[in-house]
């Protein structure tokens, strides 16, 4: 459910002005904004000079309108420059922070190749997994060496004796190698 059927809009900002809000209508793909898909659009505008930010979002209409946007790459046909705007977040009223539009600033990928994308993926992983560490939850890790469980209790106790059975019923598992 990372794609969207909603109408998607973009505004591109550069040193000489902006495009205003433009709906992204015709992708080079038969169906646009599908999960895992890269869509390509042509947006006509006056030359904006060096780009520094975009605002991208959707109207929230349609079934399954939430959208996970990885990044936007803009190729300037006049200067032959590529501008990368990393997002790696949800545009969804029911996910993340509930926003369906994002303001993204230009990322100089050449300054730290992969580093910012790696940090965004780390943040996404923590956002998806932090619920396991809420107060009151017991975590169990299966230790393949002892063939038993190591338990982290809500009261900060650690049971590392390697019991051979799951004595807690409903818990969250991880693997230790």
Automatic annotation (TrEMBL):
Coiled-coil region list: none
Superkingdom of the source species: Eukaryota
InterPro entries per record: Inner_ear_hair_cell_LOXHD (IPR052970), PLAT/LH2_dom (IPR001024), PLAT/LH2_dom_sf (IPR036392)
Gene3D superfamilies named in the record: PLAT/LH2 domain
Entries under CDD domains matching the protein: PLAT_repeat (cd01756)
UniProt xrefs under Pfam families: PLAT (PF01477)
Domain PLAT as annotated: residue spans: 1-105
Protein's recorded name: LOXH1 protein
Native species: Fregata magnificens (Magnificent frigatebird)
